[in-house]
């Protein structure tokens, strides 16, 4: 039987985090946070859950999927909220990912002016870059850009 506990009701957590109640429930179902129940059966959260939700919001704004965020949160001992030391470690991982995305976007930006990557939207120039449709051997979509 689950322990009945005191805590912060879901509506107050939503108010404090700016996240909709439905999103908080979704985060719970996805295993990103865990709610307890009070004597009335209502979801209750700890103050640390507000910080945990804030971490989720920040990571999402950085472009990380909930799957990646969950992996990072699951790596923490006892399912706790990231500490400053944890955040430094996570931010190194996130930083490397962001750097890779920046490189990919810069490369894509350079290629956009000359070719749409053989999907093919540049029929006049495509014969120069993709003679006999050789790019299809690499798979579907804009192969030269990706």
Overall description:
It is a single chain. The protein is mainly α and 146 residues long. It folds into two domains: 8-110, Multidrug-efflux Transporter Regulator, Chain: A, Domain 2, CATH 1.10.1660; 114-146, no CATH class. 53% of the residues lie in helices and 5% in strands. The protein has helices spanning 10-17, 21-29, 47-61, 66-74, 84-112, 123-129, and strands at 8-9, 36-37, 43-45. It has a three-stranded antiparallel sheet. Strand 2 and strand 3 (43-45) form a beta hairpin. 14% of the residues are buried. The mean pLDDT is 81.
Number of domains: 2
Overall pLDDT metric: 81
Helix content: 40-55%
Overall form: elongated
**Secondary structure: number of strands:** 3
N to C succession of SSEs: EHHEEHHHH
CATH secondary-structure class of the largest domain = Mainly Alpha
- Oligomeric status: single chain
Main features:
mainly alpha; Multidrug-efflux Transporter Regulator, Chain: A, Domain 2; 3-stranded antiparallel β-sheet; 146 residues; elongated; single chain
């Amino acid at each position: 039987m689950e322990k009945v506990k005191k805590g912060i009701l879901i509506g107050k957590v939503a108010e404090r985090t700016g996240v909709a109640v439905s999103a908080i429930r979704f985060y719970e179902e996805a295993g990103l946070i865990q709610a307890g129940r009070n004597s009335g059966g209502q979801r209750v959260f700890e103050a640390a859950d507000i910080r945990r939700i804030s971490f989720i919001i920040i990571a999402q704004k950085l472009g990380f999927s909930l799957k990646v965020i969950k992996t990072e949160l699951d790596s923490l001992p006892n399912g706790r909220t990231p500490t400053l030391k944890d955040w430094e470690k996570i931010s190194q991982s996130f930083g490397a990912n962001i750097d890779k995305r920046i490189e990919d976007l810069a490369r894509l930006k350079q290629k956009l002016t000359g070719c749409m990557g053989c999907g093919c939207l540049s029929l006049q120039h495509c014969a120069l870059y993709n003679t006999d449709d050789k790019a299809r051997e690499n798979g579907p979509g804009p192969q030269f850009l990706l």
